Amino acid sequence: xxxxxxxxxxxxxxxxxxxLSCKANGYTYRRECMGWFRQAPGKEREAVATIYSGxxxxxxxxxVKGRFTISRDNAKDTAYLQMNSLKPEDTAMYYxxxxxxxxxxxxxxxGTQVTVSS
Length: 118
Fold this sequence. Notes:
By secondary structure, the protein is an all-beta fold. It is 0% helix and 58% strand.
């Protein structure tokens, strides 16, 4: 089993920045991939960014490319999402995910709220 705990959410004005953290525990091989999904009110959950344990393979949703950066510190069992130039449309609950064998969202955290005001 893998447990994921997010932190770093909050409220910020448009153009501001936030850094989300996700502390993981559990079997390392089960969290080869870590990432972030988000869900805004009335919308479906969407993948925001993912990263593999080697750090060399990443994915970003088109809507966040150039503004968000995902990283991980394997020694600290933690993944990060640096969010810059935030927009009101980035307002959502952000969930940390982890997994392996091609399924990055096998495990989910409880989420952290990000609110961006205009």
